[in-house]
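pasting for the record
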Amino acid sequence: MAAGAELKARGGGPAANWRRLNGPARLAGIDLARGLAVVGMLAAHLLVTDDLVWSDPATWTGIVDGRSSILFATLAGVSIGLVTGGRTPVRGHALGQAALRIAVRALAIWLLGVLLIATGVPVYVILPAYAILFLLVLPLLTLRPAVLFAVAGGIALIMPWVYAALMQAPLWAVPGVEEVSLLVGWQYPFPVWAAFVVAGLGIGRLDLRALGTQAGLLLFGAGFAAVGYGLAAGTATGGGAAVQAPASGSLIEVVWTAEPHSSGVLEVFGSGGFAIAVLGACLLLCRPWWPGATIGPIGWVVLPLRATGAMPLTAYTAQIVVWAIVAAVVLGDPSDLVGFRALEPFVPFALWTIAACTAWALLIGRGPLEGFIDRLSRRVGARATRGADPSAAARIG
């Protein structure tokens, strides 16, 4: 009785979970975009995909390569923007609290990423890079959207050249550098990928419920994607840097490319624009069709994907942990990528991930990792700012 009364007093239970997932305070389109990113990264890990040729539908599974992780990074910036005030950035003490909580979250995500690397699953874990990117945007939290977009554009134009030069430097022959690169997520190089998070932060400062904003994201994102991929299609130079080895070839060949995971200029604009367009499309699809509604009909149809997108860290972590367990039991080696893909695990993994996330979101609430890290960051923030109002810092969801 006492436990039930406490749960009711805190607003828990399926009814509260339903309101949290589908209520007016939540942007359903962002959850949908996150859900697509989670499934896309799962596909990139588990499927053998062809090189994407836009004119050949048989190769369209290749759309997940590189683009899913870039969508993930862009949405991270959007989330940071929303939890630090959205259109009106928090200031003063509230800003300090929010920044501290983001820093704690970054440390927790980095540690989680290291643990996932230790499983031996043969994927490049994005979480260490994620953590560093969270820290890099902290000084930019109070900037206006126009300034943030300008900063993102500058990074997109300049940093691919810096990254390519670094990848051709002799330091990669030094023993231990490869291990260090895993610990900082260099396969998703933060000097370049900061462009996606900063652009996402700028998007998070816009009025994302406005029809004009949603349509603008779709159109501008599609425009950037068309420019990036169009220039790549018209360029004779070849692929970019491999994610697991220093780049080879001339600097212009390495940088002027839209190849997935190259971190080339054209990939940043092409796949970054693609991510923005996907976000705009998801916001439009989930948009209410009549006054008083919180979600449109299409938003209800994709509720399972939205539930998955409401707990992306849990979904991402769970698929790697389950992968490690299944591969160890069935194959005797978690690092056997070819053998694991031969089991054709994508469909069951995707279905179980979506089903489990939907059940958890509706019956229990926040994802377990999201809830744990949120509570941890709140406690650290409360101790560091004794006597502060805990409601001053926004929730990272």
